[in-house]
Amino acid sequence: MKHTLSVLLQNKPGVLSRVTGLFSGRGFNIKSLCVAETLDPSLSCLTLVTNGNDAIVEQITKQLHKLIDVIKVTDISEGEFVEREMALIRVKAENTTRAEVLRVIDIFRGKVVDVSSKSYSVEVTGSANKIQAIIDILRPIGIKEIVRTGTIAMARMPKK
Questions:
Q1: Is 136 exposed, middle or buried (0-12, 13-18, 19+ CB in 10 A)?
Q2: Which is it for the CA torsion 131, 157, 49, 1, positive or negative?
Q3: Residue 13 to residue 135: CA distance in whole angstroms
Q4: Measured distance CA(21)–CA(8) in Å, rounded
Q5: Closest CA to 104 of 74, 73, 130, 86
Q6: Per-residue pLDDT tens listing for the chain (160 residues)
Q7: The whole model's pTM is what?
């Protein structure tokens, strides 16, 4: 089962290395990892996606709490949350395929961020499923390169 963890931690050298070392040392896999400063530059928010049953994720959470620079660990996949990922995709765009590529990009609400005589570089933001869907559609046209961010996620606030 997929779990998305939000980890608030000190923004210090070596902290990320200790977090990833904890995973590799115990044989846990990280599917996605994204980290950046928060509003407070002394803190970072790390969004981590991993697979495992509830017992494994509970073990991961306990181990993360033992790290001195970790302030808070939340399994946000236990409730409602919003998640996004971004991809930059360089796709062939020759005279015969340019219109088709532009239609696909428009359907997925992507945008062209760079143009050359033989390709478009496209930015697409959305869920991991949306990113995979556009990749699957563009693959037969000819994808030259893909760069993806990790998942970023935020718990939804109650609507009341």
A1: exposed
A2: negative
A3: 35
A4: 17
A5: 130
A6: 889 999 999 999 999 999 888 888 777 888 999 999 999 999 999 999 988 888 888 888 898 999 889 999 999 988 899 999 999 999 999 999 999 999 999 999 999 999 999 999 999 999 999 999 999 999 999 999 999 998 999 999 887 7
A7: 0.81
DSSP H helices in 11-127:
15-25, 54-66, 98-107
Name the amino acid, one letter, at 6: S
CA torsion through residues 30, 35, 40, 43, sign: positive
**Look-up: residue for tokens 């570089």?**
121
**Interatomic CA distance for residues 158 and 70, integer angstroms:** 26
Measured between alpha carbons, how far is 119 from 102 in angstroms, rounded to an integer? 11
